[in-house]
Write a structure and sequence with these properties.
The longest helix is centred in the last third of the chain and has 25 residues, at about 155-180. It is globular, with a radius of gyration of 17 Å. It contains 8 helices and 7 strands; from the N terminus they run E-H-E-H-E-H-E-H-E-H-E-H-H-H-E. Helix content is about 45%, strand content about 15%. It is of the alpha/beta class. Helix 1 (about 20-35) crosses helix 8. Strands 3-2-1-4-5-6-7 form a 7-stranded parallel beta sheet, sandwiched between helices. Pfam families: adh_short_C2.
Amino acid sequence: MSILDKFRLDGRVVIVTGASSGLGVAFAKAAAEAGADVVLAARRVDKLAQTAELIDSVGGRSITVATDVVDPDQCTAMVEAAVKEFGKVDILINNAGVGTAYPATRETPEQFRSVIDINLNGSYWAAQACGRVMAPGSSIVNISSILGLTTAGLPQAAYSASKAAIIGLTRDLAQQWGARKGIRVNAIAPGFFQSEMTDSYQPGYLDSMAPRMILGRKGDAEELAATAIWLASDAGGYVTGQTIAVDGGITIT
């Protein structure tokens, strides 16, 4: 096996949650290009169909599964659909999430809990469902955020708390499932990439963050997806329990 072969995912089955838009689409496309069969999961089924067409265009195979990760039963059904269609689950890219920006003195309990329920609890239910069926050598890639590591001038208490918690969740699942199950669990902490979340930022916000971007630009979704493929593949076979910041240097400024 050559060094480049270690990045291939031929014969693997990848579940991507939040695959209906933005970074989830990039993760799904990258997995298909690396040779994997892809299970596309999200709440917006119409958008999933568009992602499935993209997978077809690069020669990949996929199925779509309507999934709200807040519901553990739907996460179980997602995994069952994957096993029924492809026979197994090798990789989970745990991407489903939302972001809000409410000032801490005005955020309601419902608003705070909703973010925690989707970003943190949903990541756990998806990982739990996959962990029950994954064989040794499998991999989970959780999607955290640089806001789990630093601040960025936005009122995002719920989002930051959820993404910091995912880092802790990643360490614990890596410890629990490493030796016993042979499952690696890592996280990515993205900086600023084009997505529905960044589209909702107030005008001028990203420009104001430019001095903290050592590389002087926003990230490209393919750069983030490449990191996920590395962590999911044999190329990352000795990496577990880690959070990799893919942020152009923001977290060191």
